[in-house]
Here is the input.
Amino acid sequence: MRKHSGILLALPAWLWLVCFFVVPVAIVVVFSFGEKPDIFSTHSLEHLSFDRYAEVFTPAFFTTFLNTLWIGLAGTAICLVIGMPVAYWMAVKVRPERRGLLVALVMVPFWTNFLVRTIGWQILLAPEGWLSTLAQGIGLPAFEILNTRQAVLLGVVYNYLPLMILPLFVAFDRVSGPLREASADLGAPKWTTFFRITLPLAQPGIIAGVLLVYIPLMGDYITATVLGGAKGNMVGQLVAGQFQTALNWSLGSAMAVVLIGIILVSVAIGAGIVWLVTLPARSRNRLVLGPAQPAGARAVTAPAVVEGAGA
Here is the structure.
């Protein structure tokens, strides 16, 4: 009965997932094998083929995929570098009664429309804008960053940074203070406590933050459209252009499927790299526990193994 009640509780979520994620993605995958029969039709599934995928991997389009991957990786890394110390400070250093206010301040950008926030940066970065004029007034050159890849990178970091800070804050906040105090009492320096106690225990929040930033960032097209111009194209713009302007749904679907594949492969590669990099630390923190043995007696049973017990 308890098992069935669990299924019933999860049923709405599964139905939502199937209806609004699995089915639409399946339709996109099917459309990606179709073609555009004429200039007035959006798609046709009479002759299925991989021709649209061949078009995606032509240099004209594939360069944009590489540009998107670069912005996605760089933007996520910058958000992590900026967000981690901020979240740690909020969760550990700030008094508990003030943390709610800081979390609310992190959420302030979400009170404004995503497009409006991005257009605000367009005004700030414009060569004839007030900020550029002010810079020229003190002898600095005029801003030339708008309509470049760097402008897109700046915009995505601004737009997605709260999505990195919030899960990191929760992860650091859940790390028990007595563990850090015990580490300090045993003589560990602050940096050792951070890297061997706090950071490993906050790993789920770090993974959540990276995924929350990286996945939607890869599909973003508003930031690239407003700030990127011709030099800051992203795949989201190509997909939107094929569906809304070129009316070539099959090519747009193939681009979307390839983008999904790139995200999955890059996440898998990133997870593998992190696993390899942290393998020495996990091996060092590996603690083997066995049953209590009388003095002088040899263990006769296999010991239990605890991973990361030193973390």
Summary: Confidence is low (pLDDT under 50) at residues 298-311.
